[in-house]
Amino acid sequence: MEPDLVEVQVEDEPQGPPPPRLGRYLAVIAAVVVVGGLVVAGRAVSGPDPRPTDLTPAPRLLGATASLAAPWAEIWRTGGDVISVGATVLVSRPDGTGVRALTPEGDPLWGPVAAGATCAASGEGAVCLTAPTADGVATAVAPDGGLRAQLDAPPGLVDWWVVDGDVVTVAVQAGTVTVRRWVPPGHRGASWTWQGEAPAAAELERERTWLRVGDAVVDLSTGRTIATPSDAVALPAWRSMLGPNDGSSTVPVITDGTEVVVAGLRHYPGPAHLVVEGVIVTGTGEVTAHRASDGVELWRTAASAAFSDGIAAGLLEPVSGGDRVTARDLVSGAELWSVDVGDATYAGTTTAGVVLRVGDAVVAMGP
To answer: Which fold has domain 253-366?
Structure first.
C-alpha cells in the first residue's frame, strides 16, 4: 500500500521592512544656494510616518528546543527512569516504579502514583502493570495524574505486557487461549480479542508486532491470524516529519522511523530528526545532513540523536569516555560548541532543552 504523503508547512514571518506608505502631503520647496556656504531656504515638509517596530517574538517552531546560541549546562537531575518526554516529562520513582510528572524546567507537577507498578508511556499519560490482584493487572494514568481505568485480570492469565501504550494479555483456560489487546482511555487504537486452541505445551514467543501461540501467529496490531511473523503490520505507519519542520522543504518528507523518503525518490536511513533552513538531518549512529531540494550531502558526524532550535543543529555525539552535547552550523556542520555529559542516552527534546539518561539518573541539559 502506498504511504500517505503528508507535508506540514509552517509559514515564516515576513522578512524585511514593509514598503513605505505614500506621503500624505506634497510640497513645493523654494531654495537659494549660495556658493561657499550651502544655504537652503524653504518650507518644512512632513515625511511618511514610520511604521512602529514590531517587538512581538516569532512563534516557536513546533518541536524546536531551547536556543543553541550559547553552550548548555545541566539544568536539573532526578533519580528514576524516563517514561516519556513531551510537554511534560514523565519519570518513575527512584526505585523504578510508579510515575510522576515534571515540567521541562524540572518543577514537580504531580505524583508519584501507581507506586510498585512498572509504568510505560501511553499517549500523553501512562499505563502501569502490576501483579494480578483484585484491583486488576493494569492501571491507566491520565496526563494530569488521575487514575482513569483499570484492567481486570482474566482467568488463567499467563502473560501480560505493554505494546505501544496498550496492554496485551494472554490467558489459557479450558483448552482455549485468549489474547486481548486493551487500549487505555485517552489512547488512540483499537481493542481486540483473539481466541484459539491451546497447544499441549503452552509455549509463547513474541516480538513487538507479533505473538506465536503454538502453531498460530497473531498480528498484535490487528488481532488477526497471519501465516508468518513477517506478515505482521509494520509499526509505526508512514507519517510526516518526526521532528521540527520549518516548512523550508518544498518537497514531501516521510518516514517510518527506519527509513526516510524525500520527494518519493531519495532514501536515507532513519529516523528523520528535522527539516530546518532547507536542510534535512537523518540517521542514528551516523547522522547526515542533506540539502532537501536536491539531495546534496552537506556534512555527517557520529551521533545518536539530533535536534534543533530552528537555527542550529544539536547532537548527542560519542567521545572518549562518554558522550557530549554539540551544536553545529546547519549548513556547514562546523562545531559551534560542545559540552561533555558522561555516558548518556537521549530520551527526548523539550522546550527547555534535552532529557538524557545518565547512569542511574535522569538529566536535563539546556541554556
So the answer is: Thrombin, subunit H (2.40.10)
